[in-house]
Amino acid sequence: MPKHNIRSERRRYPRIEKELPLKIEANGYDFVSGTQNISCVGAYCCVDKYIPPFTKIAIKITLPIGAGKTNENSAVECKGVVVRTEDAKEGGFNIAIFFNQINDRQRQKISQYISQFLPKEPSSKRL
């Protein structure tokens, strides 16, 4: 079989590298950040204070909607848990968040946003 230079996404839910405004509430503290990457089941971002793994958090992500037509935004609010915390090279901490309480409507908003950046499936018809 020939090798392909395209990295295959093994995850069930694809993730994209996009910076989206993100607000986190954890243990009485509020953090404002931006995602480094996002999927329908989680996000990765940098915060300025240490948040231990397994910390339950509230999340609000702002998704830009209607590219070109309007400058509307759509908010996604859900609950999550920090699954990994790492020192960031630039200072602060990179955290991986799993969305453990998100309703289908909110997950669908993220999915629709992500799908516009994914490669389109090739047509089944060959010329």
Structural class label: mainly beta
Average pLDDT over all residues: 86
- In CATH terms, the superfamily is predicted glycosyltransferase like domains
Task: Give the distance, in angstroms, between the N- and C-terminal Cα atoms.
Answer: 23 Å
Oligomerization state of this entry? single chain
Strand content: 35-45%
Radius of gyration: 17 Å
Q: Which overall shape is indicated by the principal axes computed on the Cα atoms?
A: globular
Regions with pLDDT < 50 over 5+ consecutive residues?
1-9
Strand order of the largest sheet: 1-2-3-6-5-4
Under CATH, the topology is which? Answer: Thrombin, subunit H
Relative helix content: under 10%
Instruction: Provide the domain count.
Output: 1
H/E order of the elements? EEEEEEH
* Tally of individual helices: 1
How many strand elements?
A: 6
Report the sheet with the most strands, covering strand number, pairing sense and barrel closure. Answer: 6 strands, antiparallel, barrel
Instruction: Kindly provide the name of the CATH class.
Output: Mainly Beta
The CATH architecture name reads Beta Barrel
